[in-house]
Specification:
Elements: E1 9-17, E2 26-35, E3 42-47, H1 56-71, E4 91-100, H2 108-127
Parallel strand pairs: 3-4
Antiparallel strand pairs: 1-2, 2-4
Length: about 140
Amino acid sequence: MPGLFPNAVRDVHVKYAKNIGGCGPYAAITVDFEPLLDGMTEFDFVNFVDEADLPSEFAEAVADGIRRELLGDVEYEWEKPLPQAGSDALAVQVALTGARWHELDSSERGFRQAGRLAVRAALNQDRIPKRPKRRR
């Protein structure tokens, strides 16, 4: 049974910036989505960004945004098994491989939204057939 991500989707770049008159939320992330082995149903988040380059609360917000986008805005305790979703079983490892933030403009809310947008971008990339690059 294929999972939600039957193929790896790598280097998903998302930038969330909103000008709301003054300081606005800003977050930029790069994420990889990898399918887990058959029979595994879980969500695994791995942060490869050093805490000196991204505060841990922002990395946790990315994971929360991804989880919320994949599962819906339901209250979820990490220790419980994930719900089964039939052919869309959640069996994915997500790796945060890059991030940029701003001391004044970044917030957990912005990174949570960037995580949500990364899932949407990855699902679109996985389902759109890749066009061969044109040679010049």
